[in-house]
Amino acid sequence: MAMEPVSRYFMSQRLKMHYLVWGDEAKPPIILIHGTRDHARSWQRTADALAGRYCVYAPDLRGHGDSAWAVGGNYSIIDYALDIHALGEAIGRAPYTIIGHSLGGGVSLQYAGTFPEKVSKLVTIEGLGGLGWQRERRPAHERMRAWIESMHRLEGRVLHTYPTIEDATRRMREANRHLSPELARFLTEHGVREAEGGFTWKFDNYTHAGSPYEFNMEDARDLWNQITCPMLIIWGKESWGSRAGRMDLSAFHNYRSVEVEDAGHWVHHDQFETFMGHVNAFLDA
After folding, report:
1. Cβ distance 15 to 67 under 8 Å?
2. Which of 74, 110, 247, 274 has its CA 20 to 30 A from that of 218?
3. In angstroms, how far apart are the furthest CA atoms of the chain?
4. Closest to 64 (Cα-Cα) out of 195, 203, 193, 199
5. Of 8, 58, 63, 52, whose CA–CA distance to 209 is shortest?
6. Is the pLDDT of residue 1 over 80?
7. Quick one: DSSP state of residue 146?
8. Peptide bond preceding 95: is omega within 30 degrees of 0, i.e. cis?
9. Is the pTM of this model over 0.90?
10. pLDDT: is 128 or 30 the higher one?
11. Are 263 and 238 in contact (CB under 8 A)?
């Protein structure tokens, strides 16, 4: 039976941020950071598996889950990293073991590169691609114009309403064919809120916006080079994200990389037992 977490809040950049806690706080701390348009409760199975040996903390990133939406729609990776620093200070138990998925993986790398003394071990799941680091940099005026136009389009966008939980669950399964009906339902129930006419996802549409000041590979490598803790880099073989073999990981000092068969972008959902096997071996090393 799933362990029910405790809800708590902290402040970051004047935003009220929500996070969950599983387990005994006398045990070592581990922070789980979700990906784009996801939520803290998506870590339930991972938290259940880890709570016997760790106290598990999982934030809802700004604009996600039950955390506040950013005024003006400011959702860059540096803002998310600031929020994780604020969470760490609120918990007050550094150094932390951190597991991050997708955007959360990128955020965890930012945090670990900025405050290497605050991270003891780091697992990133599909966390090195999709953030614009691989693309050729466009001129600043093109990026600025595209960003302003995208923000203008978002002003007229409304949250999609699903008449029933079942409709929203079907959309969840369309996004990830590996999800079981039970897991898709669980993720959906915790990822929506009631609205007029049905249910909407909890995430802010402005999380699609990004920033005109793209985070580039030069900056990424500088931050990665500061990370001193052991790292585990996990990839899904069927993912649409970047592949380990296509990336230069030479900026990292102490890492190993594994690719998981029959898994897409959400490796921790798609092949949970295999994922936990790799994580437990890494944490025990």
Report:
1. yes
2. 74
3. 54
4. 203
5. 63
6. no
7. H
8. yes
9. yes
10. 30
11. yes
